[in-house]
Amino acid sequence: MKTRIARPYLLFLGDAADDLEAKTAIGVLHWRPADCIGQLRVPGCAPRLDLPEMTVTEAAAAGARTLLIGVANRGGIIPGHWSGVLADALAGGLDIASGLHTRLSDITVVKDAAAKHGRAIHEVRHPAGDLQVADGTPRGGRRLLTVGTDCSVGKMYTALALERAFRKRGIDCEFCATGQTGILIAGGGVSVDAVPADFIAGAVEELAPAAPPGHWHIIEGQGSLFHPSYAGVSLGLLHGAQPDTLVLCHEPTRPHMRGLPHQPMPSVEQCIAANTLAAKVVSGKVHVAGIAINTAALGEAEAGRLLAATADEHGLPCVDPVRGGVDAIVDNIRF
Amino acid sequence: MKTRIARPYLLFLGDAADDLEAKTAIGVLHWRPADCIGQLRVPGCAPRLDLPEMTVTEAAAAGARTLLIGVANRGGIIPGHWSGVLADALAGGLDIASGLHTRLSDITVVKDAAAKHGRAIHEVRHPAGDLQVADGTPRGGRRLLTVGTDCSVGKMYTALALERAFRKRGIDCEFCATGQTGILIAGGGVSVDAVPADFIAGAVEELAPAAPPGHWHIIEGQGSLFHPSYAGVSLGLLHGAQPDTLVLCHEPTRPHMRGLPHQPMPSVEQCIAANTLAAKVVSGKVHVAGIAINTAALGEAEAGRLLAATADEHGLPCVDPVRGGVDAIVDNIRF
Q1: CATH number, residue B259
Q2: Are strands A173-176 and A142-148 parallel, antiparallel or unpaired?
Q3: How high is the pLDDT of residue A74?
Q4: Which of A194, A225, A232 sits opposite B233 (nearest CB)?
Q5: What is the chain A residue with the closest CA to B231?
């Protein structure tokens, strides 16, 4: 079930109109600079990364293994004029990885080139392969899961920041990706929102299996137990993760749950209580290590006051991973 | 997304070895006698229903619309020697409905016969069609959901018993099936455990849509919020159902969660609290109307004492739907 993408990458920006459309490539380069050896842009592409520009042939010669489609455009489509470049990449010896909605395997010239040249196509939004039902058996190793008050509040960013901080301290750990961007960054993972419902927790058990005592799986959360569209994904992920440590992620200026104007946001306190209660079904000693708040919408002083007040209210370290890093949370983890 | 199966049915028992293997047919006949006009058995079939024996041709002449495979055999397979009968049924003008694991569309002779004669094949374990993401918007009509302490504790049976009791009182209602057997009984529904995880709640919103004020959707629950393999399905179903009324189903003699020897059973009290808390995300005034206990493993006197003690402990009507019916629960519903 778990995707494994060969690295290093040639980052394909297509004809992205701006940095927002290139955010997948930007994220991969930010979190995995050593995995990125070049960029490929087509006429009309506005953003430019701090990487050498390369053709497919140059990238393959430099050791690239996979062309990674780093574009997140409107509708998640692969426009027809990319097909030639993609087929050339396969002919030149590269695999292709995509998180877009359009299936590469539905584009005849791309599908045929992959078959002819024996290259892999990774469509991380469309999981394939065997599935297993979770059994919830207690397993070895340590697991941290980022959970959220809502969708898109920084669960992936926080997990990656924690991985980086763990590594700086010499702690054996691995980021486990559960969404498309995370999978492209990590070079593997499983898109848990796309597996059949019976297998959500099982997919996460496979993603973060039993490990030696000192090893940490740092698992990217999805959605929120309080989001009426996706809470089933969040609960299955929580049970499959069998976490001993939770970090709650939050965006403090959101007027309502993402995409649902009628749906009020839950409080930080409600989320801590609900996630702790649900985690105890599989992990009796679960511990909330801290709160990560995305304060991008606030000024520096206001952000500082909010972090201090939230820390005080809940008796937990509270940080903005972008502004101040996650060290205060790592300090509070029960290693 | 929602399956709709044409009725009435010819119940196909195949070569079922005993009543347990014929339990799907027995369930359909028990809950929907008016939808069943005949039975078809092949040599070696032990169970016999209280229905006329008919060939495919006789059943079609008598008005049957669908041959329903009423067998739940080991592995959920369709043995090769059924293919001829199934192809004959399609040639004779019947659709086929199956809840088995083997796909009818993978059996060439059956697939070809369906195409040639323009008949439908319903594989209720494998949902197909468009999906929608739930939005959780408050909607009209009333909804009751059966929830459970575990898998296989009587959620479908209780929902069907409630539907029957509602109808006796002249209440406008409809049973909404979320699993294979329920779908075959109801002639429609959606197998929520098989939809991609992002669409669990959305599938249930579609299954039990907005309705007039006096109308009740009585929704079959699945799994348990406390079952580590399937809780994601249960939570998505709960949110999609947006229930104003819950009925908790329980089996009191189970030593551990079904299939998981290491996993302790939750208490009735824990289940009431967790389901109420989760339902409030979408349904602020949710009310637990009663407890349905499967006392099949207990003697009459012991069962009576347990029901009385449980009712007393939780201040709720507590019944065994098989032994005593569900009237006490219906009496406690806030119509």
Answers
A1: 3.40.50.300
A2: unpaired
A3: 80
A4: A232
A5: A236
β-pairing verdict for B95-98 and B121-123: parallel
Q: Is A194 part of the contact surface with chain B (CB cutoff 8 Å)?
A: yes
A136 falls within a domain:
no
Classify residue B135: in a domain, yes or no: no
pLDDT recorded at residue A20: 87
Tell me if residue B80 falls in helix, strand or coil: helix
The low-confidence residues of chain A, meaning pLDDT below 50, are none
Would you call B135 an interface residue with chain A, using a CB distance cutoff of 8 Å? yes
pTM: 0.94
CA-CA distance, A278 to A224, in Å (whole number)? 12
- Residues B52 and B159 both lie in one domain: no
Please choose, from the candidates A112, A148, A136, the residue with its C-alpha nearest in 3D space to the C-alpha of residue A270: A148
**Beta pairing class for B9-14 and B66-69:** parallel
Same domain, A158 and A299: yes
Do residues B149 and B252 both lie within one domain?
yes
B18 Cβ contact partners less than 8 Å away, ≥ 6 residues apart: B46, B47
Assign B125 a pLDDT band (cuts: 50, 70, 90): confident
Q: Say if residue B6's pLDDT is above 80.
A: yes
Domain carrying residue B318 = 142-331
* The residue type at A241: A
- Does B230 lie at the interface with A, CB-CB under 8 angstroms? yes
Residue A268 and residue A221 in one domain: yes
CATH of residue B52: 3.40.50.720
Task: Note the ipTM here.
Answer: 0.92
Mean predicted lDDT score pLDDT of chain B: 95
A95, A207: one domain: no
Q: CA–CA separation, A305 vs A313, rounded Å?
A: 12
pLDDT (tens digit per residue) in B174-226: 999 999 999 999 999 999 999 999 999 999 999 999 999 999 999 999 999 99
Is the CB of B281 inside 8 Å of chain A's CB atoms?
Answer: yes
Residue B202, token pair as written in the block = 């959305």
Contact A197 B282 (CB under 8 A): no
Query: Which among A136, A201, A228 has the least Cβ separation from residue B136?
Result: A228
Whether A202 and A305 map to the same domain: the answer is: yes
Instruction: Give residue B72's pLDDT.
Output: 85
Instruction: Report d(CA B96, CA B121) in Å as an integer.
Output: 5
Q: For residue B73, is pLDDT > 90?
A: no
Residue A156 tokens, joined: 């992936």
At B126-161, the pLDDT tens digits run 877 788 999 999 999 999 999 999 999 999 999 999
Q: Which pLDDT score is estimated for B1? A: 55
Instruction: Return the half-sphere exposure (C-beta side, CA atoms, 13 A cut-off) of residue B267.
Output: 6
> Cβ of B192 under 8 Å from any chain A Cβ?
yes
Is A329's Cβ below 8 Å from some Cβ in B? no
Domain count, chain A: 2
Angle at which helices A300-314 and A268-279 cross, to 10°: 50
Nearest CA in chain B to A191: B197
Q: Contact A197/B201, CB-based, under 8 Å?
A: no
pLDDT of residue B196: 93
Cα B85 to its chain centre, rounded Å, is 27
Task: Indicate whether B235 and B307 sit together in one domain.
Answer: yes
B301 touches chain A (CB under 8 A): no
Residues A118 and A152 in one domain: no
Please list the alpha-helical segments (H only) found in chain A: 23-31, 56-61, 83-91, 108-117, 155-168, 180-186, 200-207, 231-241, 268-279, 300-314, 321-324, 327-331
> Which of A194, A198, A260 has the CB atom closest to B194's CB atom?
A198
